[in-house]
TrEMBL record:
PANTHER family in UniProt: 6-PHOSPHOGLUCONATE DEHYDROGENASE
An annotated Gene Ontology molecular function: phosphogluconate dehydrogenase (decarboxylating) activity
Annotated 6-phosphogluconate dehydrogenase C-terminal domain residues: 159-286
Coiled-coil residues: none
Protein name per the record: 6-phosphogluconate dehydrogenase
Annotated keywords: Gluconate utilization, Oxidoreductase
SMART domains membership: 6PGD (SM01350)
Native species: Micromonospora pattaloongensis
Domain of life: Bacteria
Family: Belongs to the 6-phosphogluconate dehydrogenase family.
C-alpha cells in the first residue's frame, strides 16, 4: 500500500522504515531536508496516487496547521490519519470539517516510542469502519506480530481518548516504580537496589516493559546521579484527570502521579514553606531558613 507520512521525527522516521520493511511504499516529508523524501507537503501529495492516505505524525502544536494544509491539497475520497498526541475533543470538529470536503479522518493513538521500529507499535484507532478497513494493511504492518497491539476503539475520537487513558496509566505505573526505588535507596537494609529491580523482571506480578527500562537506566547509572529529578508532562495526564472530574470517576493514583510531576519542578515548594510557617506559628516547631 502507498502512504504519505508527514513528520519523520523519533517515531515517524522509525514508522517509515518499519512500513518499508513490510513492503509498503512510503513518501515522507519532514522540515528537516536531511530525512525528507520530498521538498514540501504539496510534492508529497503529488507523488501519491488517488485515493490517497496521509498519516500526520507531528507535534500537537502544529497538527491543526498541517491538517489544514493537507485539506487544501487533497481530494474527496482521500483519508488523513492523525497519529500524534492530539486531544480527543479536537477530533470530532476536525473530522466534520474534512468530511464536508469528502475527506476521511482517522485518529490513531500510537505507543511504542523509540523501540517501535523493532518491536512494533500499539495502535488505538478511532474512525468510520470503512476508513479503518481501508488502512488495515498499514496498521497490520505497524503493530506487533500476534493478536495484540491493535484496536478499533470506536468512532472518531476514540483512538486519542484511549491513548489519553493509556498515558494516564503510564504516569501512575512509572511513579509507583519510582517511589519503590526511592524507598529502597533510603533503606539501611537494601545494599543492592539495582539488583532488586533486576530480580523483579521475571517471575513477579510487577514485571513489565517499564520495569525493564528502569533496570536499563540503573545499569547505565546505578544512583541516577546524572539526572535531575524534573519530569515534564505532555498533556495526556492532565486530560485524563479532567475527564475523571467531568465523569465523576475516582482517579486517586493517576491524579497523584500527575501532581508529583508538578512537584518535581519546584526547587523550593511555596506550599511547603506555608506549611512550615504554620507549624512554627501554632506549635513553635523549628523551621529551616534559607542561607
Amino acid at each position: 500500500m502507498q502512504l504519505g507520512l508527514v513528520g519523520l521525527g523519533k517515531m515517524g522516521g522509525n514508522m517509515r522504515e518499519r512500513l518499508r520493511a513490510a513492503g509498503h511504499e512510503v513518501v515522507g516529508f519532514d522540515r528537516n531536508p536531511e530525512v525528507s523524501d520530498v521538498a514540501s507537503v504539496a510534492e508529497l501529495v503529488e507523488k501519491l496516487a488517488a485515493p490517497r492516505a496521509v498519516w500526520v505524525m507531528v507535534p500537537a502544536g502544529v497538527t491543526e496547521a498541517t491538517i489544514d494544509e493537507l485539506a487544501g491539497l487533497l481530494d474527496a475520497g482521500d483519508i488523513i490519519v492523525d497519529g500524534g498526541n492530539s486531544r480527543y475533543s479536537d477530533d470530532g470538529p476536525r473530522a466534520a470539517r474534512l468530511g464536508a470536503q469528502g475527506i476521511g479522518y482517522v485518529d490513531a493513538g500510537v505507543s511504542g516510542g523509540v523501540w517501535g521500529r523493532e518491536n512494533g507499535y500499539a495502535l488505538m484507532v478511532g474512525g468510520a469502519p470503512e476508513h479503518v478497513e481501508r488502512l488495515m494493511p498499514i496498521f497490520d504492518a505497524l503493530k506487533p506480530a500476534g493478536e495484540f497491539g491493535f484496536v478499533h476503539a470506536g468512532p472518531v475520537g476514540a483512538g486519542h481518548y484511549s491513548k489519553m487513558v493509556h498515558n494516564g496509566i503510564e504516569y501512575a505505573l512509572m511513579h509507583a516504580y519510582a517511589e519503590g526505588y526511592e524507598l529502597m535507596a533510603a533503606s539501611e537494609l537494601i545494599t543492592d537496589v539495582p539488583g532488586v529491580i533486576k530480580s523483579w523482571r521475571e517471575g513477579t506480578v510487577v514485571r513489565s516493559w517499564l520495569l525493564d527500562l528502569l533496570d536499563a537506566a540503573l545499569e547505565a547509572d546505578p544512583q541516577l546521579a546524572g539526572l535531575r529529578g524534573y519530569a515534564d508532562d505532555t498533556g495526556e495526564g492532565r486530560w485524563t484527570v479532567e475527564e475523571a472530574i467531568r465523569l465523576a470517576v475516582p482517579m486517586n493514583v493517576i491524579a497523584a502521579s500527575l501532581f508529583a510531576r508538578f512537584t518535581s519542578r519546584q526547587e523550593d515548594s511555596p506550599a511547603m514553606k506555608a506549611v512550615a510557617a504554620l507549624r512554627n506559628q501554632f506549635g513553635g516547631h523549628a523551621i529551616h531558613k534559607n542561607p
